[in-house]
Amino acid sequence: MRLRNLYTFLTVARLGSFHAAAAQLHASQPAISARISALEDELNVQLFARDKRGTQLTPRGVQLLPYAEKLIAISHEMKAQLLDDAPERGTLRIGIVDTLTHLWLSQLLTRWHEEHPLIAFELISDTTASLITQLKAADLDLVLMVADEHPLPSFVTEPLCSYPQRWVASPAMTEVEHIKGLRDITEHAILSFPRNTRPWRYLKELFEPLGELAPVIHTCSSVASLLSLVKQGVGIALLPEPLVMQEVYQKKLILVENLPKAPALNFCCAWRLDDDRILPRLLTDTARRMIATH
């Protein structure tokens, strides 16, 4: 019996929805349904019933629930015990997008070193697309990236965090106070992350109806450089909220309120499905707990 299928069962049961479980586990809804079907076939029972009220546990599903919870808890306890009894050694190669590098890398590395003092960490900051390519090629062992819009069947993915995006500009750009909509920013440059990243694609689609009036989009892979450029008044930027709010409080940036609300950026951890080591899961659990408490 695959623990992944049991964990999926618990997630669907907790959320009461295959769709919601797929979103939380960063998998497609057919993939979630396939895992539940495999579990039902293995146990020879029906675990969920769907009706107008939504997805409900069957009596057999209710009966399985405490056993599934115990098995998952035992699995986590076993991994922690093995780690305590036999500390892992070696090198782990971790890729991380620059937003998370800027926000969390120093704290993550400190915590990971405290928990795994015999592991040397090799860290690479890059775009999500590049990190996925390197993970597929086994050049990386774990990546912290923007959650992909499509399922990644060769990876295990776990949600990490989600951040709203905010439009910001330099206080020196006094004209932004008069911005009432997209057409009011056509003469301003827009600052964003590299081409084909999720934020860049959102901006291209947003400005497409403007045609030739669409503003120029300057891109940069460095969060620090983007913040510096926007503070110097080079353009208006759309950035994850935690990156900018301290600068807003210090009045080094101002919020541009009357522009369309961008979707939140979701981040996840991922490692290869064929990697049976405990360490990627343990590092992911540590990262999620640490970020959730800050």
Quick recap:
The chain has helices at residues 3-15, 18-25, 29-43, 59-85, 98-115, 128-136, 198-207, 223-231, 241-249, 279-292, and strands spanning 48-51, 54-57, 90-96, 119-125, 142-146, 155-163, 165-169, 190-192, 217-219, 236-240, 254-255, 265-272. The chain has 294 residues and is α/β, with parallel strands linked by helices.
Describe this structure in words.
One of its GO terms (molecular function) is DNA-binding transcription factor activity. The protein is of the alpha/beta class. It has 3 domains: 3-83, Arc Repressor Mutant, subunit A (Orthogonal Bundle), CATH 1.10.10.10; 87-162 and 266-292, 3-Layer(aba) Sandwich (D-Maltodextrin-Binding Protein, domain 2); 165-263, D-Maltodextrin-Binding Protein, domain 2 (3-Layer(aba) Sandwich). It is built from 10 helices and 12 strands. It has helices spanning 3-15, 18-25, 29-43, 59-85, 98-115, 128-136, 198-207, 223-231, 241-249, 279-292, and strands at residues 48-51, 54-57, 90-96, 119-125, 142-146, 155-163, 165-169, 190-192, 217-219, 236-240, 254-255, 265-272. It has a 5-stranded mixed β-sheet with strand order 4-3-5-12-6, sandwiched between helices. The protein has a 5-stranded mixed β-sheet with strand order 9-8-10-7-11, sandwiched between helices. Helix 5 (98-115) links the parallel strand 3 (90-96) and strand 4 (119-125). Helix 1 crosses helix 2, helix 1 crosses helix 4 and helix 5 packs across helix 10. The longest helix has 27 residues, at 59-85. The mean pLDDT is 89.
